[in-house]
Amino acid sequence: MLARIARELYWLGRNLARAEFTARAVEAVFQSELHGAIDSVPSVSFGAGGLLTMLGAVDENQPAGTEALAHLTLDGDRPGSMLASVERARDGASTVRDVISAEMWEAINITALGLRGGGQPGWAAAAGPYLSSQYVKERTSLIWGVAGRSMLRDEAKCFLDAGGLIEVSDMVLRMLRVALPGADSPRADGYAPILLKAVGGFHAYLRAVTAPPNAHPVARFLLFERAYPDSVAACVDSLHAAFTAADSGPRNSTPVLRVSRLAADLDFQRRTLPDGAELTGICERTQQELARIDQDVAERYFAGAYAAGTWN
Question: pTM higher than 0.90, yes or no?
Fold first, then answer.
């Protein structure tokens, strides 16, 4: 596969995952702020301002509340916004239309047009952050479903999946790092259900874990629970499988070896860390390792086709 095509598919996956997780986070925070759940827990930082911090968009005039959520959803000039991610995904998909399925291209194109308003000026602004985030959450889930049922399970699908997996891992870790500070305080447990809803894992947690959804068990679940597909450990395992399938020489592949080491390290931490252990450092180190994996991927697979620059 051409390096340029592999790179476009990889970043198509990342942009789709970024849009989906931004939409999920905005919806969860909007509902929590609407019901006053965040206001009742003063130590919680996982509100609208916390989401801006998570996406690396801190400035002196940082907005708050609904205005902040609007920046995260409908501000096309903000690179980490939902709208910007969808637009980048559409641009990327248009360059690989001969590789992805026609149904997938149609789903992405319709999503971008719908978010723009389908030719109706002002639709997005009228819909607001909540409705537009619901729309993107549903549409991105549809896109991933169409990709899984209509694309060949070849190198193209591997790079598409790899991009989505590394972005999901990074987003979960960002959320944990924003929400974990002060987790030793009993009041900090109030953020945990919001965090679970923001990643779509609330019901999965209730089925898998007997403990109440408090800070430490939720953090362990999102880091180590391999039965939950969007946990960091599960994403790293799937990332290893994707790169192994796409690489002609996986035994000598730097990305494959680094992902394998990260998977082993997460499994070791899961087994040895006692309940209630501090996890912020693990989140930070894992995120740094994912950034190194991203760079390894660029150097091995994309070569000169890769344009330097990752999410901050």
Answer: no
